[in-house]
Amino acid sequence: MASKKNFPLRLDPKLYEVLERWAQDEFRSVNGHIEFLLREAAIRAGRVPSARPAARKEEQEPDGAP
């Protein structure tokens, strides 16, 4: 298993409660869910070179194409 970087993260208590409920819904720990959300955001933003988001369909086909 690859090692992970440890660092303190301060969150608003209400935001933590939201993340805690969301993580439970997804059967993840809060820490694991935060990592999942950050990874997904980084991929969508094109910040992860090995995992570029798929181009939208309308960007792939010229106008009028079936």
TrEMBL record:
Superkingdom, natural source: Bacteria
| InterPro entries recorded | Arc_rbn_hlx_hlx, Ribbon_hlx_hlx
GO annotation terms (biological process): regulation of DNA-templated transcription
Q: Which Gene3D superfamilies match?
A: Met repressor-like (1.10.1220.10)
Output this protein's name. Toxin-antitoxin system HicB family antitoxin
